[in-house]
Amino acid sequence: MLGGTTEASALAKALATQPRYDALLSLAGRTEKPAPQSLPTRVGGFGGAEGLARFLRDGKFDLLIDATHPFAARISQNAAQATTITGLPAFCLRRAPWQAEAGDNWRHATSVQDAIAQIGSAPRRVFLAIGRQEAHRADAASQHHYLIRSVDPVDPQPQLPHAHYLLDRGPFDVEREAELLREHRIDVVITKNSGGSATYAKIAAARALGIEVIMIGRAEAPAIPTVATVDEALAMINHLLPPG
Ligand SMILES: NC(=O)c1ccc[n+]([C@@H]2O[C@H](COP(=O)([O-])OP(=O)(O)OC[C@H]3O[C@@H](n4cnc5c(N)ncnc54)[C@H](OP(=O)(O)O)[C@@H]3O)[C@@H](O)[C@H]2O)c1
User: Fold this and answer.
1) Confidence of residue 244 (pLDDT cuts 50, 70, 90)
2) N or C: which end of the chain has fewer CB within 10 A?
3) Ligand 1 neighbour 5 (Cβ under 6 A)
4) Is the pLDDT reported for residue 203 higher than 90?
5) CATH code at position 178
6) How remote is the CA of residue 155 from the centroid of ligand 1, in Å?
7) Pocket lining: 72 vs ligand 1, CB cutoff 6 Å
8) Is 224 inside any structural domain?
9) What range does the domain containing 205 cover?
10) Confidence of residue 243 (pLDDT cuts 50, 70, 90)
């Protein structure tokens, strides 16, 4: 299972209790202190789709599960290609995207660059909650004040005259998120449409405070069958690898 998400960890926990599966979890190695996992874990890239295909063949795997983040596009592409190369069954565990509801004030963006451009030219106070790898894209609009939150320190480092960096890891709750938005006098939140509950609180807090959200949409869906929950994933595994 390719992981790095809350859902992958939850599925790992469920699989660890079922002795008929001999499962391995794979992490990219981006997080300095990854959360403890219930399955044996390997860390690091495979060397593209070909490398992943070789790894799957050498390890005599029967099934590949892509439970990576909806915005980790390259590894999902590699996973789909590796299943074509090997002919292995595979599926993707991907949480459903968030949907705007009454009271939300969302603007849609297609990428981090697009979201940064949409803040506008007049200086604003921005909560940038898009992870550590793309925060430097805010350099294109350095007139704004940024509150930048990530699990690990941002890298590459942005060159911003007005930025406050915050290290924290979800799950977050709505009250504390609202407090954070108020404390930093935020008037726009930028987020990827990751889905799931762990990081949804900032959206609910923005709604409660009438703050605009620039929502970065997902790229196209992966080219393998997809389920949205851990229970559906367990049913899919049982279907693809029936007992006996
Ligand atoms: N992008 C996000 O917003 C985000 C948010 C939360 C968590 N994550 C997690 O962080 C990891 C990296 O994300 P990313 O956006 O940098 O991915 P990415 O751009 O899609 O992948 C870049 C490269 O990292 C390696 N890789 C990615 N996931 C891997 C895994 N689970 N096991 C082994 N190698 C992996 C692969 O290297 P090779 O080509 O050498 O195999 C891949 O080509 C993912 O596992 C994802 O689930 C990402």
Assistant:
1) confident
2) C
3) yes
4) yes
5) 3.40.50
6) 15
7) yes
8) yes
9) 106-216
10) confident
